[in-house]
């Protein structure tokens, strides 16, 4: 039976709700918009019009794939983070709302500085560095990423958000000491791989079967990147500069100890929107 665009959206939303999906409203809208090739505004405008059987079948196929575990962001090839539209592929992690807490904390420090150099290390899609650059026009931001495929997504997102003037992508290995030519930064921000290797197979299907394991695997205890960055990248910070980390559940105290052992002080732990310790940051102490 023929259905209108609005009824198709409502039906998909109800289907997702029955499946226990918390963000059913958002995900239904994104899937229907993508499947019908309409913007959100066009979907609202055309809500009373009838969708063709072919369009409805395309939308329902997307929904079936999503309910089987494939994330919406990978199905539609984009996602929004901190108000920015971002290209997304299976070569990068999908930006999460919890990571916006990391951005907010860094912005509190960076905004008063005005002109500054910022490094988004393990950049993935570039979401963190691009969010910072969008809020601080005077900042010069480097998106540091090891994966060639992820760097391609970084470049696409720099262009998409018209930030080419003050954001540059650069291939770096966070586990190794940086080249001196990279220069120094007032701030390094990192959401590194932090899942313990043995835990990856137990992750939700939407993560372990779709998101890149290179961006998940934090070594045996999940802390390899925190140790390497705190030790090897502190020389890329200006005296008094700050290092900001996103951390996994239960990792905040361990990361705090790692940073303290490497000479960081004034270390703070910040909780995310779900009251989980999510951000650890500290200031590189200067010798007297």
Feature tags:
288 residues; alpha/beta; Rossmann fold; 7-stranded mixed β-sheet; two-stranded antiparallel sheet; 11 helices; 11 strands; 38% helix
Question: Overview of this structure, please?
Answer:
The chain has 288 residues and is α/β, with parallel strands linked by helices. It has helices at 5-18, 24-36, 40-45, 53-67, 72-76, 99-110, 127-135, 148-160, 205-208, 224-232, 252-261; strands at residues 3-4, 50-51, 78-81, 84-87, 116-121, 139-145, 167-171, 185-190, 237-246, 264-271, 277-284. The chain has a seven-stranded mixed β-sheet, with helices on both faces. Helix 1 crosses helix 2 and helix 6 runs parallel beside helix 7 (127-135). The longest helix is centred in the first third of the chain and has 15 residues, at 53-67.
Could you give a short description of this structure?
The protein has 288 residues and is of the alpha/beta class. Helix content is 38%, strand content 22%. The chain folds into two domains: 3-68; 78-284, Vaccinia Virus protein VP39 (Rossmann fold, 3-Layer(aba) Sandwich).
SS content category: alpha/beta
Name the CATH homologous superfamily of the largest domain: Vaccinia Virus protein VP39
Q: Largest sheet, order of strands side by side?
A: 7-6-5-8-9-11-10
Tally of distinct domains: 2
Describe the protein's topology.
Blueprint: E1 3-4, H1 5-18, H2 24-36, H3 40-45, E2 50-51, H4 53-67, H5 72-76, E3 78-81, E4 84-87, H6 99-110, E5 116-121, H7 127-135, E6 139-145, H8 148-160, E7 167-171, E8 185-190, H9 205-208, H10 224-232, E9 237-246, H11 252-261, E10 264-271, E11 277-284
Helix pairs in contact: 1-2, 2-4, 6-7
């Amino acid at each position: 039976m023929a259905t209108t665009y609005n009824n198709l959206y409502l039906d998909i939303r109800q289907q997702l709700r029955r499946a226990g999906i918390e963000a059913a409203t958002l995900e239904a809208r994104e899937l229907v918009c993508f499947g019908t090739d309409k913007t959100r505004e066009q979907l609202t405008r055309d809500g009373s019009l009838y969708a063709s059987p072919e369009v409805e079948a395309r939308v329902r196929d997307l929904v079936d794939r999503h309910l089987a575990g494939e994330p919406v962001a990978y199905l539609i090839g984009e996602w929004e983070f901190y108000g920015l539209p971002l290209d997304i592929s299976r070569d990068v992690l999908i930006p999460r709302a919890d990571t916006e807490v990391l951005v907010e904390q860094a912005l509190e420090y960076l905004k008063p500085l005005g002109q500054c150099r910022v490094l988004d290390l393990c950049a993935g899609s570039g979401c963190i560095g691009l969010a910072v650059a969008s809020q601080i026009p005077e900042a010069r931001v480097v998106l540091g990423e090891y994966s060639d495929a992820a760097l391609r997504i970084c470049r696409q997102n720099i262009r998409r958000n018209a930030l080419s003037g003050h954001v540059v992508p650069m291939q770096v290995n966070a586990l190794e000491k940086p080249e001196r030519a990279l220069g120094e930064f007032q701030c390094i921000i990192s959401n590194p791989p932090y899942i313990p290797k043995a835990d990856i197979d137990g992750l939700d299907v939407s993560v372990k079967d779709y998101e890149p394991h290179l961006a998940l695997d934090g070594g045996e205890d999940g802390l390899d990147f925190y140790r390497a960055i705190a030790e090897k990248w502190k020389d890329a910070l200006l005296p008094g500069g700050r290092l900001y980390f996103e951390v996994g559940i239960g990792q905040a105290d361990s990361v705090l100890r790692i940073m303290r052992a490497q000479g960081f002080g004034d270390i703070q732990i910040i909780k995310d929107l779900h009251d989980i310790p999510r951000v650890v940051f500290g200031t590189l102490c200067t010798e007297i």
